[in-house]
Design a protein that fits this description.
Distance between the termini: 29 Å
Number of domains: 3
Shape: globular
Structural class: alpha+beta
Largest sheet: 7 strands, antiparallel
Helix content: 10-25%
Radius of gyration: 22 Å
Strand content: 35-45%
CATH class of the largest domain: Mainly Beta
CATH architecture of the largest domain: Beta Barrel
């Protein structure tokens, strides 16, 4: 296993072993939503690493990070688990990172994070840095998530995720007070999608989900990850509050629809993933909440840019958060569906012509890869 961002633009992939043997690798499959990829090499005498239990990790445990920083193969650094369950980092769509202060530098991506027993408990993925080098804050995909992805890629070449069909948000102290709840545990249901398992089971807007599959729910990202990892068709028990009264319901989880899968699953807002230069844009359908947050007139229809990746071609071309996209390559954009349809026709290295509206004015902008 390695990170998707390590191999996704490679014409050829080679694997170098500690005994200096080198092999060409075949890409079995990737999962961009967790930034993981699976490779296969035809070789003998390979050693495998045992799986560790990332769900049982505790803050303060010693860990070792193995990798290839700055081309220094088989580098091992030591640290501790600084935090678990890190999410909303903007690194991947599904995040449940182990944070460690073991030195992780450029080149460590895809390497193993192991415990003191030599068991794999994470895949080194990213760092937080203002200098480009190690600052004691590194992130690894936990082995429980990695193992689930690996098994699905081996079995079918793709990852199938579960779907509950609710939009959820953090239960802040202010919201908890409004709903008459004394604690901020759980997540608030802001919408139940038509035709979803949640709708069939009777969940409603305003319900507070406290437990999923008999485990406490602490945050939207935790619930989202738990639902995604649930086997399609499995019946799980959800405990929730409605009008201050606890209730339970059994729900059979569906497979995440393609339209939802491309928008990120159990999220408060819908977005689209694209390729090429358009992947630098986080595009959202306009809702009252998004319009208010981005300063867009609430009467506007269509899609709006919620985020522009720093340092990319889109930022260089002058695109900004809050810009409305009216056309993509002369095709009208009135919804996420029409945006996705137009974006799907754009070749990887093809320039993109956008007609945008900003503060009441329209202008064309060309994006080049």
């Amino acid at each position: 296993m390695t990170n998707n961002h390590v191999v996704n633009k490679a014409d050829e992939i080679k694997v170098l072993l500690s005994d200096k043997r080198e092999f060409k690798a075949k890409l079995v499959g990737t999962d961009t939503k967790t930034d993981l990829a699976l490779l296969r090499v035809e070789a003998e005498g390979l050693h495998t690493i045992p799986w560790g239990d990332s769900d049982g990790l505790e803050v303060g445990e010693f860990v070792l990070a193995v990798g290839n920083p700055f081309g220094l193969n088989q580098t091992v650094t030591m640290g501790i688990v600084s935090a678990i369950g890190r999410a909303s980092m903007g690194i991947a769509e599904y995040e449940d990172f182990i944070q460690t202060d073991a030195a992780i530098n450029p080149g460590n991506s895809g390497g193993a994070l192991v415990n003191v027993r030599g068991e794999l408990i994470g895949i080194n993925t990213a760092i937080f840095s203002q200098s480009g080098g190690n600052m004691g804050i590194g992130f690894a995909v936990p082995s429980a998530m990695a193992r689930s992805v690996l098994e699905q890629l081996i079995k079918g070449g793709k990852v199938v995720r579960g779907w509950l069909g609710v939009s959820i948000q953090e239960l802040s102290p202010e919201l908890a007070q409004q709903f008459g709840i004394t604690e901020t545990k759980g997540v608030l249901v802001s919408e139940v999608l038509e035709g979803s398992p949640a709708k069939r089971a009777g969940l409603e807007r305003g319900d507070v989900i406290l437990e999923y599959d008999r485990k406490s729910v602490e945050s939207p990202s935790q619930l989202r990850n738990a639902v995604a990892r649930t086997t399609v068709g499995k019946k799980i028990t959800i405990k929730y509050l409605r009008d201050k009264r606890p209730k339970t319901v059994d729900i059979a989880i569906d497979e995440q629809p393609k339209s939802i899968a491309k928008s990120g699953g159990e999220e408060p807002e819908e977005s689209v993933s694209s390729t090429g230069v358009l992947s630098e844009l986080d595009v959202r359908e306009i809702t009252a909440d998004i319009a208010r947050r981005l300063g867009v007139p609430p009467a506007e229809k269509g899609v709006v840019i919620a985020q522009v990746r720093s340092g990319g071609a889109a930022e260089e071309a002058g695109l900004k958060e809050g810009d409305l996209i009216l056309e993509l390559n002369r095709r009208p954009v009135t919804s996420l569906r029409s945006y996705e349809s137009a974006a799907s026709q754009v070749a990887k290295d093809q320039p993109v012509l956008l007609l945008i509206k900003r503060q009441g004015r329209t202008l064309y902008i060309t994006l080049k890869s």
